[in-house]
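DATA SHEET
Item: assembly model
Revision: 1
Owner: S.N.
Input lines:
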Amino acid sequence: KHDSSPMEQLTQKVLRSYQETCQLGSEELQLRRWDTFSREEICTYQRQARPPGKMWQRCAGRLTEAIQLVVEFAKRLPGFLELCQNDQIVLLKAGALEVVLVQMCRAFNGENRTVFFEGKYASAELFRALGCHEFISSIFDFAQSLCALHCSESEVAFLCALVLVNANRRWLQDQLQVARLQGQLEVAFRLLLRRTQREELLPRLPPQARLRALCSQHLEQLQAFLRLHPGLLPSAFPPLYRELFT
Amino acid sequence: LKEKHKILHRLLQDSSS
């Protein structure tokens, strides 16, 4: 009886969309959470990343792969492809990186501040060659704060869906339709939290502004990097990354 | 917007992925 309710069906679809488009399963990520890069491996990484932009290119590549999966997640979300094409693009352009940042909490070990990157867990030190240590620290801080909430897979799935389906994004054509979908997702999320006795999660979630600030910082850092290395574009970064961020 | 985001638009249209 419970399973047949429309909201329960929506919950199952959101979770399935999310699981079908995850790069790595949470069990595998948990099993490998102490498999960290050694000091020597970090040095090798930093040597390899020495030519200007090598590490930026590498990270942009990984980020683009993650964003492609966010697009697939969006396509599987109930109601998303029924939105007009303009609004699908607006929501993804504004929200794809935010979704990746939320998903990062699954691949983050808060006990030693490392994140899963190219096969192992890496400390912020590995990303030093990017030349934006403060920004990387802010991302790690965000992941740590989300990690501390110990979200279930269903909760992360809804957080991602609600980051994406946000009727407050600028340039939406049919704001009402996006708001309707957002409302349905919010109701299903609240029902899930009530059922699992996790209602305390909502007030503890990081504010939306924090995600927005991280995305703005990413753009600022990218622009600063491009100013320093004007010859690198257009070939250095994946086409989708360029389309979204430059 | 579609013109400016051809890759994103194509990914959204691609039903095989």
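QC remark: The two ends of chain A are 50 Å apart (CA to CA).
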